[in-house]
Specification:
CATH topology: FAD/NAD(P)-binding domain
Largest sheet: 8 strands, mixed
CATH architecture: 3-Layer(bba) Sandwich
Structural class: alpha/beta
Strand content: 15-25%
CATH superfamily: FAD/NAD(P)-binding domain
Shape: globular
Length: 573
């Protein structure tokens, strides 16, 4: 029997970037907020000894315990899905701050094209350009409408970047909060080569601070030390923006925020029109609780948002057979694999130094910034050179054709450790009718609840995109003065190993049509007006970018929408 608690105005499920932003904004406005996080609490002091590659990068200290809850995976409906038993393709964060603690900090606004992708594609190429089984959706919001919320996120987190970006990337009403990061020798080679080819490279906007910074909320943080321990690690300097050092202190200082850790939410109580409460289990004691609330905010990771709705029977599950329902539809990933390695015999670089978002990139072949008329794919990729800091345990570079173990392998890796630069493309992932999320009928978590099941594979769209973008990476790498270059232009059947990116999207997509989307432009649920769902699960497709900037901007807009709902109620659109 669940212990029923006193009603609160707002309850937030998940305390990562989204939960932290919404908690900070609502408490600043005077509302009492309860935040539920299934993992443990964290502070900057927890990262003082974080430079332990084995503990954090190899043994996944900051990640979800897969022995208690995981995902199951299959390529098609004809296959039996099996659980992901060890980490591979993506890394799901756990604890206060979520994936916002272990991210790299690469910050990209989605392109104007992304938000109106169906309309713009049809206008330029006609309806027949979009494959039959590619359910492209406009997002129900434009870049210009979302732009002020990008600015809010950038000023809060202290994004470091150029004063302006190339015009085809998107107009900015205000420069980034701090100047760009340093330019490494590898970045200069990439920039000079791309410029010589007529492209438009720029330093990657970064949530790793280029200088000391105090944000509009009075939060002060120190500059990046370029130590290279960003991805899979917390930042002991607080230089990498994460919820623990930016938005959560604001909510906690307000006196109107209550954070409950080890609170694993298992269901949403509702009457079919509104939610009345959430149910959760204290994972330390096994106690069950019911927390009534006027507003329920789902702010957890993609898989958790979708899973909670499906377990709660809130909203109509997606059915690929007849293309009906919306919960679980339009799952998309990220298309990596297009790359070229540049090998230098007569020059060395300090590859151990770096930062998660240190690098240069270009978007000449991203979105619809180039003509797709004769190409067999839509969208494109951000092409980049990054110097994230290559740590000694996991970085073991060797030339193609060399042994993967033994004395010759050791000699090769030592020789090449500072002689290889990589140019790569991070490609967009378009939705497919048969790519979706649902509940696994067989496998359950440690509480006896069904796991989320992922059905996904790479399609001809992805194969053609990788082939095209790989050619562009080689073109640039060949201009960088290397002794030799080696290109990879092949992408094969998707597998849940090895690691590729944590950029999962879709499942609770936004849009203007309740029949094919889950939430409106304020991320208010069509089927329950007091439920707001926020995160990358709202994306109808994935861009050629990292998702965090767009997740953060949408969270600020959602906080504004919740404030409006508290005042007036009803649908916000």
């Amino acid at each position: 029997m669940a212990n029923k608690l006193p009603k609160v105005p707002v309850v937030i499920v998940g305390m990562g970037w989204v939960g932290g932003i919404i908690a900070a904004e609502l408490t600043k406005a005077g509302h009492h907020v309860v935040g539920l996080e299934r993992g443990k609490s964290r502070s900057t002091q927890d990262y003082y000894h974080v430079h332990d590659e084995l503990r954090y990068a190899s043994r996944y200290e900051l990640m979800q315990d897969l022995s208690k809850e995981t995902v199951t995976f299959r390529n098609t409906e004809k296959m039996r899905a099996l659980p992901m038993r060890s980490y591979g393709s993506f890394l799901m964060g756990d604890g206060v701050g979520g994936a916002g603690v272990h991210w790299n900090g690469q910050y990209y606004r989605f392109l104007p094209y992304d938000f109106q992708i169906r309309t713009m594609t049809e206008e330029r190429y006609g309806k027949n350009k979009i494959p039959k089984d590619m359910p492209l959706r406009d997002w129900g919001i434009t870049y210009d409408e979302l732009e002020p919320y990008f600015v809010k996120y950038e000023q809060m987190s202290g994004i470091s970047g150029p004063q302006e970006l190339p015009d085809h990337v998107g107009k900015m009403s205000k420069p980034f909060a701090t100047p760009p990061m340093k330019t490494s020798p590898g970045m200069k080679l990439f920039t000079d080569a791309a410029t010589k080819l007529g492209y438009h490279p720029y330093i990657i906007p970064s949530a790793n601070l280029s200088q000391d910074y105090a944000n509009p909320d009075g939060i002060e943080r120190a500059a990046c030390q370029y130590c290279g321990y960003c991805e899979r690690f917390g930042c002991e300097y607080g230089a990498k923006a994460d919820p623990v050092v930016t938005v959560l202190p604001v909510a906690q200082k307000s006196g109107k925020f209550e954070l409950r850790t080890h609170a694993n939410v298992t269901g949403i109580v509702h009457d079919g029109k509104k939610a009345t409460a959430v149910q959760y289990v204290n994972t330390l004691t096994g106690e069950q609780f019911e927390q009534p609330a006027d507003v329920v905010v789902l702010a957890s990771y993609v898989f958790s948002n979708v899973r909670l709705l499906l377990m709660s029977k809130l909203g109509k599950p997606y059915n690929p057979k007849d293309d009906t329902g919306s919960i679980g539809r339009n799952y998309a990933y990220q298309v990596n694999g297009a790359s070229t390695s540049a090998y230098y015999e007569d020059r060395q670089f300090n590859m151990a130094m770096g930062a998660g978002a240190l690098g240069s990139s270009l978007d000449d072949f991203n979105g619809d910034n180039f003509d797709h008329g004769d190409l067999k794919f839509l969208h494109g990729a951000n092409i980049r050179f990054t110097q994230t800091g290559l740590r000694p345990i996991q970085y073991q570079p060797s030339l193609p054709g060399k042994p993967k173990w033994g004395g010759e392998f050791k000699q090769s890796t030592l020789h090449n450790a500072n002689r290889i630069l990589g140019v790569s493309g991070q490609g967009a992932s378009m939705p497919n009718r048969y790519h979706y999320l649902d509940l696994d009928p067989e496998y359950k978590d440690s509480l006896g609840l069904p796991l989320i099941r992922l059905t996904f594979d790479f399609m001809e769209q992805d194969v053609e995109l990788v082939k095209f973008i790989a050619g562009k990476t080689k073109e640039i790498a060949d201009q960088m003065g290397a002794t030799r270059t080696e290109m990879n232009d092949v992408i094969k059947q998707y597998n849940i190993v090895p690691y590729q990116s944590t950029h999962n999207t879709g499942g609770t997509i936004m849009g203007s049509d309740p029949a094919t989307s889950v939430v409106n432009s304020y991320l208010q649920m069509w089927d329950a007006e007091n439920v707001f769902i926020c995160g990358a699960s709202n994306f109808p497709h994935n861009s050629g970018y990292n998702p965090t900037a767009t997740v953060g901007a949408l969270a600020y807009r959602t906080a504004e929408g919740i404030e409006k709902y508290i005042q007036k109620g009803g649908s916000l659109v």
